[in-house]
Amino acid sequence: MAVEAARPALEHLTVLYRGPLASCNYGCPYCPFAKRRESPDEHEADRAALERFVAWVEAQPFDVSVLFTPWGEALIWPRYQQAMARLGRLNHVRQVAIQTNLSGPLGWLADADRTRVGLWATYHPGEVSRARFLARTRELDALGARYSVGAVGVPAHLPDLQELRGELRAGTYLWVNAFHDGRPYTRAEREALTRIDPLFEVNTRRYRSRGLPCAAGETAISVDGDGVARRCHFIPAPLGNIYAQDVRDLLAPRPCTRATCHCHIGYVQLPQLDAPAVYGAGLLARVPEGPAWADPAAYLDRARQLGRAGATPR
């Protein structure tokens, strides 16, 4: 009689979920999903996929954290608000977070477990006034929500981002993603952006990753609306399907197959960077809550070392 191999022990799995939703209420010129509208049938397909995923999370015997990374803006739709609140009430869900432009209703947070729910809120100059965006963050503050605020470091937007930093609550982290347009930042721009975001330099680098350990595929995966699991959003090869297989059978330590990694949701999975030391429980919402946030010098040093060879800072 064949003996079934024991499944690897799993205490906690991070899942980046991206369903079929691919529309946004904003019109950012660089985004292919800007102002796209879905048909009722497409919305129903997304709703069904989301419901199936939430039910899957509910059934897992181990701890789970979820980051929703939609192609467009999801939090304007009640189904995503309800999914966030529902997941946040589960005892075995450690954290649930979502990337959002913060344009949707926020009242649902009043009934959510705000110690587990987090928002990754992106400010889009040109799509919303700074005053309007700041008003939304004040609503979050009044609700006691956990969130970070961020923007792309477009040099022309620097004065606006400086004003935003001055007007946000002092304890709110304002992250800045590097803007890639082929022109290097000037020294003055880099210094100004670092004053806004002390970790800005981390996002300007490409990290050597090929052949190196990565949590992606071992304790973190990305999942699409059909349940297809991949190591991360940046490695297309599927591992299997969470609805057809026990997800624990899909997980294993694997070296990265990409030459470099340069997106925040990717490189924070590199053990060499030790991003959890800075972000702690706020990792998925990009809220630095870890012990190293008070003095992130060691994190910056690791970023410089890992990003040195083959790195291409903007």
Task: Explain what you see.
Keywords: Iron, Iron-sulfur, Metal-binding, S-adenosyl-L-methionine. It comes from Deinococcus radiotolerans. This is Radical SAM protein. The protein has a single domain, classed as TIM Barrel. The C terminus is likely disordered. The protein is 26% helix and 20% strand. Strand 5, helix 4 and strand 6 form a beta-alpha-beta unit. With 314 residues, it is α/β, with parallel strands linked by helices. Helix 1 packs parallel to helix 2 and helix 4 packs parallel to helix 5. It is built from 8 helices and 13 strands. The strands form 3 sheets. It has a 9-stranded mixed sheet with strand order 6-5-4-3-2-1-9-10-11, with helices on one face.
Question: What's the short story on this structure?
Answer:
Keywords: Iron, Iron-sulfur, Metal-binding, S-adenosyl-L-methionine. This protein has 314 residues and is an alpha/beta fold.
Offer a few descriptive terms.
8 helices; two-stranded antiparallel sheet; TIM Barrel; metal-binding; alpha/beta; disordered C terminus; 314 residues; rSAM_sf; nine-stranded mixed sheet; 26% helix
Q: Averaging pLDDT over every residue, what do you get? A: 93
What is the general shape? globular
Sheet with the most strands, sense and barrel status = 9 strands, mixed
- Helix percentage range: 25-40%
What would you say the CATH architecture is?
Answer: Alpha-Beta Barrel
Radius of gyration: 19 Å
Query: Alpha-carbon distance between the termini?
Result: 59 Å
| Low-pLDDT regions | 309-314
Number of domains: 1
**What's the CATH first level?**
Alpha Beta
Q: Which structural class matches the secondary elements?
A: alpha/beta
Q: And the CATH topology?
A: TIM Barrel
Helix and strand sequence? EHEHEEHEHEHEEEEEEEHHH
Q: What is the beta-strand fraction?
A: 15-25%
Which strand order does the major sheet show? Answer: 6-5-4-3-2-1-9-10-11
Annotation field: number of helices: 8
Number of DSSP strand runs: 13
